[in-house]
């Protein structure tokens, strides 16, 4: 093929492997393009990609250059300014909970104090925010830009795809690409990301899940033209439609020590920041349903980056009734999302989990959407299991992305501990009476038909 494309995929963390490299995006790209991957992850993280797609690709492990202090100060100050702006724009103070001061060195603490001071000044007009963002970009280390410019000039990709927009260390690569007229595209990581003011890279194109997210881009980043925001959907939900992934209920039960004659309830865990008392919700679920243990079984799937011991007490107390099925992720590096990556088998396990469980319950998790693909209901915990002045479910469910539920009976709400048993049993026995609009809500958040999202993305990149 004379004009074969060459696409460079920048993959800052393991979630992009699952959502993009394991998906049919690669199936469509490999027909018309050579692929190169740059990532901080080791080459071993991509062995399944080669195997499942039967492809060879060039690979380079990169170490992202840290920002200099001035660049970081400008970025954090404009981030804080944007959060203040966004909270006023949407009249939603919970947007400000996305500003967290890292508890690192004294120097970093001072930097964040300065960022807050400057951010309050710069947020007075939106033009000030844009002005100082531009100044911050001018402070990006020139040596880093030159280093990547040479690397890109040698590689000569026709386009670059960044699997999400949140990593500032990728900005020098984007600037180098821009100087070489190489087209850059990034995907917006998730349905909750845009209000958080974490658009850390500037690219030519931005891929969004839905019209809801495209409207959000227009609201939060009016300086980005609508033509640059492309409605493609996201490929991560396509896996649930692949019937070849499904194994029998009996085989799934045998593999994970489950009773195939019982109804299965999935409790999907959150990270400790979002849900610091998640273990108490799991305990409430177990205690409320233990009288039904002859008929039901709870399957606990923890958040892939939370292998803490906080659930151990309840798991030990309710052995056999609460069965933990851990995510099949590489967890050796222990550095949060950046250092973790999923094994390909984890997709099949999660697909079968959703297929064979009758419902899912959690605190505000995206797993509500995963189960909605298969028309399974979700119950959200909506009460406070502990007294904490800095955290509450009221704060969580006032997050901006939950406003997408307005007008929809999207999930069931467990408003009191005493309701856990009755609501769970109702969801199992009469799923059509819980979260009646779950499919319509999902259509608001994810472009349909969802089995065309991979090819939508591939067409953009080609």
Polypeptide structure, described:
The chain has 462 residues and is an alpha/beta fold. It folds into 3 domains: 5-66 and 140-234 and 452-461, Glycogen Phosphorylase B (Rossmann fold, 3-Layer(aba) Sandwich); 69-138; 243-445, Rossmann fold (3-Layer(aba) Sandwich), CATH 3.40.50.12580. The chain has 18 helices and 15 strands. The strands form 3 sheets. Strands 3-2-1-4-5-6-7 form a 7-stranded parallel sheet, sandwiched between helices. Strands 10-9-8-13-14-15 form a 6-stranded parallel sheet, sandwiched between helices. Strands 11-12 form a two-stranded antiparallel sheet. Helix 15 (393-397) links the parallel strand 14 and strand 15. Helix 7 (142-155) packs across helix 8 (171-179). It is globular, with a radius of gyration of 23 Å. 42% of the residues are buried.
SSE map:
Layout: E1 5-10, H1 15-21, H2 24-29, E2 33-39, H3 47-53, E3 58-61, H4 69-89, H5 106-122, H6 126-138, H7 142-155, E4 159-162, H8 171-179, E5 183-187, E6 205-208, H9 211-220, E7 229-231, H10 249-256, E8 263-268, H11 278-289, E9 296-301, H12 312-317, E10 322-324, E11 329-330, E12 341-342, H13 344-356, E13 359-362, H14 367-373, E14 378-381, H15 393-397, E15 412-414, H16 420-429, H17 438-445, H18 453-461
Parallel strand pairs: 1-2, 1-4, 2-3, 4-5, 5-6, 6-7, 8-9, 8-13, 9-10, 13-14, 14-15
Antiparallel strand pairs: 11-12
